[in-house]
Amino acid sequence: MLRPGSVSATDLALRSFTAFLLECAPEVGSIAQVTRRHIEDFKPWLAKRPGRTAPRIGPATTLQRLGTLRMFFVRIDEWDWPEAPARVPIFLGDLPRIDHPLPKALDDAAAARLLRAAQADRRMLVRVTIEVLLRTGLRVSEYIALQADAVVQIGAAPWLHVPVGKLHEDRYLPLHPDLVTLIQDYRATFVDAENSLLLPNERGGPLDRHCVTRMINRAGRAAGLPHMHPHQLRHTLATQAINRGMSLEAIAAMLGHRSLDMTLRYAKIANRTVAEEYFAVTDKVDALYGKPAALPADAIGPNMAKLRREHHRHLGNGYCTRPPELDCAFESICENCTFFQTSIEFRPTLQAQHDDAAAKGQDHRAALFNAVLNTLDDSEAS
Q1: Are the C-beta atoms of residues 271 and 243 closer than 8 Å to each other?
Q2: For position 60, what pLDDT does the model report?
Q3: Are 263 and 252 a contacting pair, CB within 8 Å?
Q4: Measured between alpha carbons, how far is 62 from 136 in angstroms, rounded to an integer?
Q5: How far apart are CA 158 and CA 135, in angstroms?
């Protein structure tokens, strides 16, 4: 079942298409007569409609109205309405693709300035509103609907019961004791005990989202901040939580997200978390792109010098002069390596390897050892 706001938006979308038909296609007398041509004409007509606060409706409104219209035709086709067109006249490709900007959160310094400005405001409700939204991450619709018995004691801790709202689920949020005291002080000063709301205005009436927005921006102006939307305080709490190590599952439960996909958006703006993890691997990244620095001659200590002296003794038929800092590119075919060196003392070993290769018919290997032996003969003769 849709929420009342969604029902109103659906009604407005269908009325918009009806207004288009009356104005531009008066020959259409029933839904069955709607064709693809009407949809193609409706899209530019819709794009020229004035918005509530702008000369033209925005992409999100266009998406909502076209999406609602498409779903209307899909549903009446599924339900086999006699008036349904022969085919669904609106396609998924007709829906505009809109941008998905990251949530706009206040950074720590801006959030602190906003809170200080709210605490200094002469109107207590401004402070109550901003502190509750900043510390709980409530949606505005949830905040203004809080019931008088929303603050409950579970065990030794106070909790806030958030009623069924946007996602048809209620939840409990832990409350800081200072916030509980602030709410109690406001209610004791301004709220009648019989009022069904937890935080009405000073006259006892319900708040609305516009009133909340004005209060936030009143404190925001005092703090030197640009215009803000109440949802930014929700984004701010989520970003602060993830930056300080709170798990995505806990954040999802706190915000009332049904899917972690919604919560993962905040992982993209967890600047401190990203920075800490990035700098944790910076040395490895530098090692990947950087060139190992050569140590100056006087920096080689006794252990390094001993390693360099003994490194050539690793082979049984010669010496490996490869610096210890370099990886070996050949592993088991040292005789082809440019770092391989041998001397006359290894002739018996080299001769035995040559004879073994010749006996086994390993011509290439025998030729290799023969070349090494010939090098020894040449050096001995000289």
Answers
A1: yes
A2: 84
A3: yes
A4: 32
A5: 14
Q: Which of residues 294 and 133 earns the better pLDDT score?
A: 133
- Whether 220 contacts 129, CB under 8 Å: no
Residue 86: closest CA among 77, 97, 95: 77
- Name the maximum alpha-carbon separation found in the chain: 115
Q: Locate 211 and state its tokens.
A: 């009133």
Strand positions, DSSP E, 41-194: 151-154, 157-162, 171-174
pTM reported for the whole predicted model: 0.53
- Give the position of tokens 């949530």: 103
Contacts (Cβ under 8 Å, ≥6 apart) of 104: 229, 232, 235
The Cα 285–Cα 56 span in angstroms is: 49
Q: Taking Cα atoms as reference points, which of 111, 142, 350 lies closest to residue 233?
A: 111
Amino acid at 382: S
φ, ψ of residue 348 in degrees (nearest 5): -60, -40
Instruction: Give the whole-angstrom CA distance, residue 41 versus residue 13.
Output: 16
Q: Encode 208-238: b = buried (16+ Cβ within 10 Å), e = exposed.
A: eeebbbebbbbbbebbebeebebbbbbbbbb
Amino acid in position 111: A
Cα dihedral 72→74→79→83 (10° resolution): 70
Q: Which is nearest to 4 in space by CA: 225, 219, 208, 168?
A: 168
| Residue 172: strand pairing partners | 161
Whole-number pLDDT of residue 167: 47
Cα separation of the two ends of the chain: 100
Confidence band for 325, pLDDT divided at 50, 70 and 90: very low
Beta pairing partners, 174: 159
Is residue 68 within 8 Å of 14, Cβ to Cβ?
yes
Q: Give the H or E element holding residue 157.
A: strand 157-162
Sign, Cα dihedral of 155, 160, 163, 166: negative
